[in-house]
Amino acid sequence: MNNGRIALIATVGALAMLGLAFASKPLYDTFCRITGFGGTTQIADRAPERVSEREVTVRFDANVANAPLKFRATQTNLPVQIGAHSLAFYEVTNTSVSDVSVIASYNVTPHKVGRFFNKLECFCFEERIIKAGETKKLPVIFFVDPAIEDERNADDVRTITLSYTFFNTNEFKGAAKSASLN
Question: Per-residue confidence of the chain (182 residues) as pLDDT tens digits?
């Protein structure tokens, strides 16, 4: 091989790796959303028509990372029929003297049921501002897809934990904040 051909192969390889690096996050997010990998839940626009006799218990977990908030679920657990939509509430209080901008991330455990856990409405879909000293009640409307009954790997599931973590976004300098500054 001559040097020109080696340089061309190396350049193509480097560009391919660079392209893969840029595509990796959206590809990973899509993979998680489709498969429920890592407890990633699904988003639905309506509940299923079929409601099962089978019931699972949904536990609720609330966490805070780098934000001056008190955050809790108003119920610790809820019995839910497979296919029926359910409503749960979380409560968040800003304990600081300043407004805080936050966003919630979420997942479910066991991870294998993430693709069956669907949310119809959730406070986690967008960034929000909690005013100083303010307390808000935040609803979550969800259902467990009846397709879980066709999954042999999920026959042992009796409890699903829905977990949220609030993150402070005041220091975030991402595209949305940069665009609003212009």
Answer: 687 787 777 787 777 676 666 655 555 445 444 444 444 455 555 666 788 889 999 999 999 988 899 999 999 999 999 999 899 999 999 999 999 999 888 888 998 888 888 888 888 768 889 999 999 999 999 999 999 999 888 889 999 999 999 998 876 555 444 344 43
What does residue 59 show for φ and ψ, rounded to 5 degrees?
Answer: -95, 150
Percent composition of the chain: helix, strand, coil (DSSP 3-state, to 5) = 35, 40, 30
**CB contact at 8 A, 138 and 91:** yes
**Could you report how far apart the first and last alpha carbons of the chain are, in Å?**
52
Strand order across the 135-144 sheet: 42-43, 117-122, 135-144, 86-94, 69-73
* Domain extents in the chain: 1-35, 39-172
Contact (Cβ atoms closer than 8 angstroms) between residue 95 and residue 168: no
Beta bridge partners of 139: 89
Element (H, E) at 26: helix 3-35
39-172, CATH topology level: Ctag/Cox11 (Pfam 04442) (2.60.370)
Give residue 99's identity as a one-letter amino acid code. D
